[in-house]
Amino acid sequence: MSEQPHDRDETQDVQVETWGEALPSQNTAPALPQLSIPTNTWQRPLPFERSDYAESVSPSDKSTHSMSMFSRMTAKSSATGSSDGLGDQRKSWLTRKLSRRSARPISAESILRDQLLSPKSRKRIKMPGPLSATEMYLQSHHNTPPPKTIVAAQRGDVAEMTSLIRRRANMEQAHPGTGRTPLAVAAHCGHEGVVELLLTEGSNSRTRDKSQLGPLHLAAANGHCEIIDILLDREADINVAGHDGKTPLRIACDHGQMNAIRTLVRRQAMVDARDKQKRTSLHAVSDSGDEDVVGLLLQSGANKDAKDFQMRSPLHCACSVGRIDVVKMLLDAKADIEAQDDTKMTPLGIAAQSGLKRVAEILLQHKASASVKSQGGMTPLHWASYQGHDEVVELLLKRKKVDIDARNDNNRTALHLAARSRSFGVIEKLLCAGANIEAEGSGNYRPLHYACVDAEYSEVSLLLSFGANPNAKTLTGETPLHLAAKAGSDATVQGLIDRGASVDSQDLLGTRPLVIACSNGNLKIVQQLLDNDAKLNVSLGPGLTSDAPVCKAAAGGFVPVIQELIHRGASPRQVDSGGWIPLRHAAFMGHVSAVGCLLGKGARAMELGPLDNFSFSTAASEDQIARVRELLNNAVRSEQFEYQHVTYLASSATPANADGPVELQSASRSQMEQGRSTFVENHRALINESLAEARYQTRTPLSNPDLQPQYLGRHPLMPAAMDPDRAINYTLNESSSSNRIVPRTLPTEHNSPLHRFQPPLQQEYLSLGSLPQESLPQELPTPPSQGYGDGDVSELP
């Protein structure tokens, strides 16, 4: 948007008067010399934006929205216009109407013209508010021009105002936009003659505008000392409270009007009058840093130790914002240097908390105590350490009476707080100054524990280099390695291990760093711990099960961690303290990939029990539940087939005390069980090979070169019906040179049981090849008493 000129376009047909500076009249003082202000110091609002006089700034952030709105409105007008030019007329009318609702922002020129401002205020004020202008812009209200009395008061035209009075014009008629009467407008603009005339004619000097400001407030804000005297001579209330309870003196202080302050103080204004927040004028100027006004108020008897609603003194206010000159003036005036606010914070505590080294140095030079504790038992050293202000910490440590190991209400020292806030420089300065590196804080946490919580290795390394104990335990038995594993910092974990941290240390619940890393799925830390001889399983106590890290990884669905643990020797059928196996954890949470991985690594789906009654977590989606059920059902069918195949092999084997093979149909119950147990014990590898040959007879591929060799698993096959009369009997052919198990009779007919195997529904977890030895159960389930072959798959275990 291009820059707009200051003055309105004279060619615009707008019923709004052009308000620049107050027009000269026969009774007005000569205008001040005009300063050369660049034309780009302000920007006129767009004609379709309503200007808020209370803010007096150009709402540039609304320009894009307003432009789009105006474009839509003018486009609609053009689209609906006819050939007789009505569209152009509507557009022109719309532009004029919207432009009447805009107001010119007050530029910095008006405030810089006032030579009565203090030098500090002229530097501080860059964009004045509505009270800082020596003239005021009267915008139209609902397309209605302002009253003629308001216009005359704005211009300072005594003759016109006299004429209006003779014509019995209403002198109390307020401007619709601001609610200001002609007397308030004249006082705001500094027209003494008009003010005198209106007061002589009986105008009320106690009226308020919409901001609850009276003529005296407006005159004080702009430094019109003569008008202040005129109003006070006509019995105006010098301590009248305006907006937020501010008196004329307070408003003059806010705007740095030195002469107005002197005038009001001379006329017995209350120097310590308080606003709605119980703040005095000295509080306000201590915040703004106007030392000229501070000095004037102190000379006028202002209370240097007055407290606001937060019990903060002017010295607190000056220290909080780093007003060095004001701090010096207040200290020279003997302000209470140990004053405490409602949080028991002293000025030194505020300076330390804010990191204001120069202010803290001045306070310490004036003998401020560095041992006073604020709320929570925090000393200035605690605050500086917690906020990471190393320069202030260094300054405080030079004080001989500073207790470097002082504790707050949570039993923490400055070193604890510095480690918690990850401040390397503060930690280094405290350690070099002799801070206790093994100090136990809340929960027996030491500085090294706090440093490991946020996983910043630089601070951890610094503490370790100063001799921190890497195996120190908290009240719950956690070591720094536990906390680093929780934070997930592999650099911190490795640094602690290099310094001698125990990789198998257990907390009070028996949790090890490896279990924490597995629960979080952090493969890098799992590998680091295993590379440093962390145990895969550790008993939780006498007669109890192990901590089972693989179960934690399965519960989280972290497949890479599961694979790493099993590759390192963990059992996929490990039972945790709750009696759950990894497969149950993964299935319960609906982790499809983890279920497939575990089944491929030798987990047994039959150990989950009846799948119809298997429950899932509420966190698992319907799609996850369906896919997990499909995988488990396929695995159960495959395991049932393998169980029956091994049973047939074992029942046809020759027991040690038998003369020859025992046929399945004629074998007794005890002979079958004995033969199966003996066979499984002695011929695990041969059973795997026999299963592979049985699968080959089903014309199902046995290998896939694309699969990695570590992903071992079983092909999920299940006979549609198992007929014992037509089952294939196997025997051990001891005369074979390869000592292989071979089928006695191989099926050739198409409808043999081996040709009625159902294809797998899912092959996500398939790896092909021989069945791993560890996947076979140590004790095979007991077959049903009625035997096999009834055709009911649900009867199989």
TrEMBL record:
Basic and acidic residues compositional bias, start-end: 1-11
Biased amino acid composition, Basic residues: 93-103
Which residues fall in a compositionally biased region of kind Polar residues? 57-83, 760-776
Q: Which residues form the signal peptide?
A: none
Key words of the record: ANK repeat, Repeat
Q: Where are the ANK repeats?
A: 178-210, 211-243, 244-276, 277-309, 310-342, 343-375, 376-399, 410-442, 443-475, 476-508, 509-541
Report which residue ranges the record marks as coiled coil: none
- Which segments carry the region annotation Disordered? 1-106, 733-797
Q: Matching Gene3D superfamilies, A to Z?
A: Ankyrin repeat-containing domain
Q: Which Pfam families match?
A: Ank (PF00023), Ank_2 (PF12796)
- Record protein name field: Ankyrin repeat-containing domain protein
